[in-house]
Amino acid sequence: MTVYSVSPESTQAAVQAALGDKINRISTDLGEVTVWVSAQDYHDAAVALRDAPGCRFEQLLDLCGVDYSEFGDGTYEGARFCVVSHLLSVSLNQRVRLKVFASNDGMPMVQSVTDVWNSANWFEREAFDLYGIVFDGHNDLRRILTDYGFIGHPFRKDFPTTGHVEMRYDAAQARVVYQPVTIETREITPRIIREDNYGGLN
Description:
By secondary structure, the chain is an alpha/beta fold.
């Protein structure tokens, strides 16, 4: 069996050839190729990366959401929500990172790639659950980590650390009930001991 070892430069050239003008930006940093495409080209780009002879990215290893709202200490001015996919070509021994930004911050949506890589199924559900990113064309887009009655998307930067509601078992009603959060937000500062001879070390 022949094992190929493709350089990052060769991978970048193959991706550029496969995607052409669908590329918004492409770079190689620390030996890793990252390519950005627009939301309208995302699905077509995924198909091309899977099928193009020089790419052959047969496996989707990971897909996640990212909230850029606090990126760069608030100096970032681009789209807020991004979907990042990590792709692997087993046959050509190469990897690429595919990034797409949702065009609408209020209703972030990109196309689903579950028909391109079926491993995207649970990853897309997770990004929907935690970030509120909608994957158009996903046939079972529902929460996967939080409860069905959960309000909001907990990985968004503006989501409160205490959440919006809490649940508890109510013995009188013999069921679980939801109620507004009763936890008071507080900042805990660790106790620092400053002694000249702490523990007899001196």
